[in-house]
Each structure stands twice: as structure tokens, then as C-alpha cells.
Amino acid sequence: MFQINRFLVFVLMLGFLSGCASVGRKIDQSSADKIEKGKTTKQEVITLLGSPDRITRRANGDTMFSYKYARATAKPATFIPIFGPLVGGANVQHQFFIVLFGADGVVKDYISSQGSTETDRGFATGSRPAIPEVEQDKRPK
After folding, report:
1. pLDDT profile of the chain (141 residues), mean per 10
2. What ranges in the chain are assigned the alpha helix state H?
3. Less crowded by CB within 10 Å, the N or C end of the chain?
4. Within a 13 Å sphere around the CA of 127, how many CA atoms are in the beta-carbon half?
5. 3-state secondary structure of 26
6. Long-range residue pairs from 86-92, CB within 8 A, at least 24 positions apart, any chain
């Protein structure tokens, strides 16, 4: 019985230490695609996407809704004892959606961005990126 309890505690700890973190709410692209310039109102955007993460008001009466989402997941190699910090890394997915409303509360414009980033070697990368120096690959004049 004692060994079963220790096993359950071990499994639960692995679940808590799975290396996943997220910020914001994932943006449903099919809902975002329903937004139309010159037609969709603030209330309709809130109905489609939920309340924004940030509201910015401009001096000219325009309002901007900002939505963001980011999720980082550690690679399995990160959890290898002793070597994990040297060979691990993380995968990061992100989404941003910004809607600009005119003073009349109707969509003037919107911007959507999404992408992902991958780190490969955990602590072994240090603070130096694994890309060539800018001057090295410069085109000849």
C-alpha cells in the first residue's frame, strides 16, 4: 500500500512538473475571420472573441482591443537527469490579435499574428543566438 501511494505521488509530481505554461486565451481563428471592417461592432467582437486582454484608447476617439496567447512546452529531453539542462529546450506558440475601432465603435482595421519558436539546447545555448554574425553574410556592394 505504501509503495502504491509513493507511486501516485510520483506520477502527480511529474504531471505538475510537465514543463507547460500558458498566458492568455487561445484565439479561435474561425471566429476572428468573421470580423469585417466597417461593419462589425465592439459588442460583436466581444461576443466572437471574449473580453480583450487590453483596451487602449487614443486621443482621436479610436479604441483598440488586444488579445494575446502564448504557450511554452518543455521538450522531453529537458527532463533527463543531469544532461537535461544541456540538451533540452522548449517549443513556444504565440498568437496576437488587435482590433482597431473608430469613435463610432465599428471596426476600422485589425491585425492577426501567429507563430512558433523552438529552442534546442537549454542552458548550453547561453546568451548567444545560434545564427551567423550579421557582417559575415553581408551582400557585396
Report:
1. 49 50 84 95 96 95 94 74 69 91 97 82 50 45 40
2. 2-16, 29-32, 42-49, 84-87
3. C
4. 0
5. coil
6. 86/121, 86/122, 86/123, 86/124, 87/121, 87/122, 87/124, 88/121, 88/122, 89/118, 89/119, 89/120, 89/121, 89/122, 90/19, 90/118, 90/119, 91/116, 91/117, 91/118, 92/116, 92/117, 92/118, 92/119
